Amino acid sequence: MDTEFLQKCIKKIKVQNIENADVEVINMSPLNMMGKGRQGAVFQFTDDICVKVFGNEEDCEREYYALSLGKESDLFPKVHAKGPLYIAMDIVKGVDIREYLQSQPLTKELSAKLIEMLITFKEIGFERIDHHKRQIYIQPDGNLKVIDVARTVWRDRVYPYPRKLLTSLGEEYKTLFLAHVEELAPELYEEWKHYIQMEEISREIYQTTLSQYKGKELKKRSQKLLTKNIDSTYLSSLEGLVHKVFKEEWVKTMLAIGYEPDEVMNKIDEYWDRREFEFENELEPKWAKEPRRQVDISKPYGKPWTTDKGKQKEKDRYDEKYDRDEKGKKDKNNNQQQSKWNKVMFSERGRRKRRY
Q1: What is 94-184's CATH number, 2.20.28, 2.60.40, 2.30.110, 1.10.510?
Q2: What is the fold of 3-90?
Q3: What is the pLDDT of residues 289-303, one digit of tens each?
């Protein structure tokens, strides 16, 4: 591979990231662009090698790291060269699952291969055990290859089941694929089914909150989220799931009202970051850390009461003091209101008003 010529071509390609859109590309090199996405653009270098040019170094490092984790597997393209903003790798040929299912059925054999793909993701250390159907290619020999694996690593929150894959399949093939999973891997199916139900319940809770239901009713409905066997892994997965669902639904609501999408996303991220910081650092208001004054009515003035009648007498004394304090607060409030009324009525405007 001629890396010197490759680097000369890279210098003549400019890729710029655009928020919530595909990258902008200025190509002054002799290489033909094969396609582009949110992170970068792909150019054909030879008949079998392509080069992906990124808009920033972080995305480039992320994808290179993910490909390095899977270098021993046939599931990913082989890397030939790497620079700060580019990766040269094999061209993945064949047809992606999205196009394949437009003319061919989803067979049990293909479902088994998709499950094996997710197992490989787990074994090599990917954090997101998921992938979109358009990024999964069926090779002429029937095996699978995947592209665009940058988002499978360095993730703060991920779904605990392959939500993106299931959603991208559509309702019909999603149901068929889950039926195949139930037959091929029953325990895996039960876990996925559990998290799908948790997502549905999360949406119900959001709608309840949005409709301004009373707190007691929300508390009652949220009991559905409880489980007998709670561990740190389950809680972490469920927290991420609820957070993502709430964020998606809240953004939809704000966009319907007319807010800017970027502003909504930033506000939500700031809120959750602040909550996580407070939780991790166990921050509490000052009053919560101060010891409360404890009153032992059984020992007034340091001497214990010897009879129940004495204890009741002391309790009545405290109750009377409480009632006097409450009455004093009400009287003070009434006096303040009367004072405001006097100022108005005895002002020049008040005298004119009484005259008529």
Answers
A1: 1.10.510
A2: Phosphorylase Kinase; domain 1 (3.30.200)
A3: 444 444 444 444 444
